Amino acid sequence: MRKQKLEQIIALSPVPVKFLSQTEIKKAIQRHMPLTDIESKYGFSGLYLSFDDEPFIVIWKKKSNLKIAATLLHEIGHATCDKKNCKCFTCKSCDEDDAEVLSEVHADEFALKKCIEINLIDVLRIRFNKISNWDSDYKVQYKASKILMKKPIWKRCKKILDILDIYAKKMGKYRKEKYEIW
Which of 47, 122, 139, 143 has its CA at a distance of 20 to 30 angstroms from the CA of residue 102? Predict the structure, then answer.
């Protein structure tokens, strides 16, 4: 991935972005909340942390640039909701799980829309596949994925990816690199 594209994504963020090691990310989180068994077992690609007066996004620096871009867009979605006082961050009457599910839906919706807007086809494919494959161990993300799959943006993304796959097969070969915009 070209550095320009990653910088373009970072520029979308309403909060600072920090690239940290997995250990540094865990330390940043543990100051504010306990880690669940799943989080401890599987680790993190990135997180939006809004516990301090100065919220920020942390991204695990050892991921590939494509995975960094996919994670970063999702976390920017969270930060954008927070900055806009979206109900997924401000709802006092909402059940905590419902607010968290809504937050995940909004973050993924933001990421998918931005992938389309700025022609990040490989990043779109990563986000799409991740959302498609959440299992019930991740209760919040699983519920959010089921909601998101009913939204128009999901159908639009699926259609784009299906068209690219059909085109690639008609060409007699599937070369993922052919569709990279980077």
Answer: 122
